[in-house]
Every structure is written in C-alpha cells, then in structure tokens.
Amino acid sequence: MRRPLLKGFLVACATIVVAMPVFAQSIDLNRLFSIGRDAVTAVSGVSEQEELAIGREIAGRTLGAAPLVNDPGTQAYVNRVGRWLAAQSERPELPWRFAVIDTASINAFAAPGGYVLLTRGLYEILDNEAQLAGVLAHEIAHIVKQHHVKLLQQSAALSAGAQLAQRDNRSAFVNNLIGSGAEVFARGLDKSAEHEADAMGIVLAARAGYNPFGLIDVLHKLAARSAEDGSLTLLFKTHPQPGERLNELGALLRPHLARLPPGMELQIRRIAEGAGPMRAAQPPAQGNTAQPRPEQKPQGGSIGIDPGQLLRGLFGR
Amino acid sequence: MALVKAVSGVSSRIGRSCVLYFLLALVAAVALAEPVRVERDSVLRAEPRADAAVLAKLAAGTGAEALVRQGAWVQVKSGDATGWLFSFDVRFGGSGQSAESSGGGAALGRVIGSRQPLNVTATLGIRGLGEEDLKQAQFDAGQMRQLDGFAASREQAEAHAAQSGLTASRIEYLGSQAAGAGEPAKQP
After folding, report:
1. Which residues of B touch A44 (CB under 8 A)?
2. Which residues contact B91 (CB under 8 A, 6 or more apart)?
3. Residue B68 belongs to domain with CATH number
4. What per-residue confidence (pLDDT) applies to B66?
5. How high does pLDDT run on average in chain B?
6. pLDDT of residue A49
7. What range defines the domain where residue B59 resides?
8. B54 to each of A96, A205, B9, B18, B61, how far by Cα in Å?
9. Whole-prediction pTM value?
10. ipTM score of the complex?
11. Is A124 within 8 Å of B171 when comparing Cβ atoms?
C-alpha cells in the first residue's frame, strides 16, 4: 500500500517541478503584453496602462448613466482645483480628469487612473473651495493608493490564467476584469480604505494650501442629513456612516492639529443658472455631430458589469 | 477688534491672535445658535486650542448651541458656559450619528455658512444615480471627449492656485498614511 502512494507522490512532485517553470514563463509572456510597467506595477501587479484602460471604461460608463453638467466654466474650474491637489500627491502626472455629473444624488466617485466624478447634488451643498478640495482630495487618495485596483486583484479575473486567456484582446481583458471584480468585493477592506482616503485627503488639501477641514465640514453635513434622504441612498449603502468617519478622523487628527496650517477656504464657483446635462449635440471635440453612441458595449460573455461597485470614493465604495 | 472678539467669542487674547481671529471671522459664519449634541464626554475650552484652559466638562448627549466653526473647532454655548469643542466631538442637528432629525442639515448649513440651506424634504424620494443606473450604463464616447476637453494642465492648475493665493507646502501624511503610492491599505 505504501509503495503506490509514494510513487504517486513522487509523480505529483515531478509534475509540479515541471509545471512551475512553464507557469513562470507564461507569466513573463503575459507581462510582455503590457508595455510601460513601472514601480507602481511592481506593487499592484497591474500596469499603469491597464489601470488607465480600466478607469476610462468605468468613467465612460458612468457618464453614460449621468452626463456632464453643461457648464464648461465650472468643469474647467473643477479640473484646475483637482489638478492642483493631484500635483501634491505621489502620482502627479496621471492624466487626471475631474467632472461634475448631472444627478441630484450626493456622491463622488474615483475610477482608476485619475478619473474623479462629483455629482451635482454634492457640488451644490459645498460652501467653499476648501470643501470641494476636501472631497476631490479624498478621491485622489483612492486613486493614488490604488484601492480599486487592489480590490480588483482579489478577483479571480486577475489570476494569471485569466490574464493569459485574455491577453490578445485588451477590451475583453478590461471587461472581464470589471465584470468579475464587481462580484468579489470584500467589504472589510473598504472601510479601512475609506478611512485612509479621508486621512490622506485632509493632508493633500493642506499641502495644496486649503483649510484642511473642508472634508470634515462635508462629513458633518452628511452626518446631519437624514438617513432617509433619497439623494444619499447609494452613499449610505456603500460607505461607513459619516459619524463613524468623523470619529475615526477625530482620533487620528487630534494629536496632529498643531502641524496642520489653517489654510484658505476661498469662494467656490457656482454652477451656471439653468445649466442642464451636457449632450453631444453641442459641438463635440472631434466634429462628430452624431448622438452619443456607446463605443464599447459590454462583451457578450461579460455579465453584471457594474461601475457602481468599482467606483471608489468619498461616497463611492 | 471688539467686533471680532464678539463674533469669535474670544474674550481675552489680543494682538497676534486677534489678527488670526479676524481673518477666520471673515470666512466663518456669524453666530446663529444652531443645535448640536455632544457626541462623547468632552472638555469645553476657552479657546480653539487643545491646550487652552478648561471651562467645563460636557457629558455625551448634552445639548448645546453651535455658534462658530473654526478649523477643527466649534464654539458652543451650553448652559451658562461658552467655549470651544473639538468639532469631531459634536454632531450637528442634535441628532448624532444616526441623523434621524431631518432638520439637521438646515441647521448645520447655517452654522457652516451654507448659501443654500439643505432642504431635506425637497430631496426625499429623489431618484438619482443608483446602482441599477450604473449597472445598465454603457460607455459614452461623446461624453468622454467632452471630459477630455476640460482637462487642466499642471500649468493651468498652478496658475489657478497662484491667482487664489494658494501655496503648496510639505506636510507628511498622518500616522500610517505616511506610506507612498501603492503601499497596501492600512488602518489609519
């Protein structure tokens, strides 16, 4: 009885020994399909190029659900504030994009690679630029820390096998990543990621010269709103309660208050009166006058693609 | 200065502090006495500083009126005492973390200077961007082109900051946030 068992064990060992180099080689080949891997990749395992592709897909789908607010002046303003904040971060040169999207919900989202979307409902309760900076800085922190990417990594889609299967089709690869990633979120990590982004956001705002407590003001506003407020449904469903976030931040900040400068609050730019959703009927950048058309529909085999489960944010996840 | 002192509630300190309070008073809302609830046992201080003299101790659940917010501090009046609490230790609207009071938003809006008092009833039942919308959403290339068109260069961002008088400074992250990009998420 012992001998066949031993034999089987040896065969198994030999198989593993043979299989390992093949597996390793496959991984290397897989890595070749992404150029431009960098230091960030070394930690996250996802190249910046892949991160950008994932983020662009998620941002584009979110804009498909809620278009930009048709106020170019405010959109440009939010981009300048956001880019100034991002310049204080550890990833200043990402292709940062910021926008106010036309929905009354109170929320903000960060998608990988530098996309930050703020809802009109949230924008309109902000009192000053420091509060805007606090919200944007929280989102920037999610992107700098690659919270979303790390959550995606927990997905089976990011296993070596899935990458190999998809390596010839980037769009399918991204779709697969997004589709599967949405189904395997670990909520336990989310909470700490939110607290981390809160704490980092405060410092980023302070670095940029703003009153570091703008984000705190916004959290107080949220804490004071009714949990039954319909505009907060998604936010309250996907985030630690604002009161809990305030408690966490309070404990963290208390010993460090002295080293946070008072900073500036500054007047916020208001959304132009009567500005509605931006439609493609307005002169598009490429001279294409057609109605907006979905460019990348979900692939046939991909189910449950859900940007909402991927977007991370103050109020994202 | 007398006016500044009245607004900020600082009773004794003058000179350098006064200038600071004057600047802060310009951006802080004027006293409007909004209800707050003390979130945890707290110390009421004479000034908005952690080392300022202790005026009173307020137990968790105590009601108070918020007068002015200043950085991480909020000036409150509780009974006969007026002083400063760490703002994390209060909840506006007197409803606390659960925020059951629908009036809380409006109250807070006044204290922290909202131009637009939050009208909760107006937004109740609103159907905004929800999970289903996001699930069904399809990539909108036209919107993405518009989005790209609004991007700011680093130079434009710096120009905006300079125009506003913002200057960058080096400030370390707090606690375990000191790690750089790509580090594993840690508990704050």
Report:
1. 182
2. A220, A223, A224, A243, A246, B36, B37, B39, B97, B99, B104
3. 2.30.30.40
4. 92
5. 70
6. 87
7. 30-123
8. 46, 30, 15, 20, 19
9. 0.71
10. 0.71
11. no
Q: Is residue B152 part of a domain?
A: no
SS3 call for B172: coil
Q: Which two tokens stand for residue B54?
A: 């202790």
- Domain contains B173: no
- B63/B79 Cα distance (integer angstroms): 9
- All residues of chain A having their beta carbon less than 8 Å from the beta carbon of residue B107 are 224
Q: Is the pLDDT of residue A13 over 60?
A: no
Asked whether residue B64 is domain-assigned, the answer is yes
CA distances from B118 to B34, B65, B111, B183 (A): 14, 19, 12, 38
**Residue to substitute from B95, B140, B145, B187, interface A, most A β-carbons within 10 A:** B140
Sign, CA torsion B180/A216/B117/B93: positive
Structure tokens, B110: 């006044």
User: Are A226 and B108 in contact (CB < 8 Å)?
Assistant: no
A303 inside 8 A of chain B by CB: no
Token pair of B125 as six digits: 């039942």
**CB-side exposure of B4: number of CA atoms within 13 Å?**
17
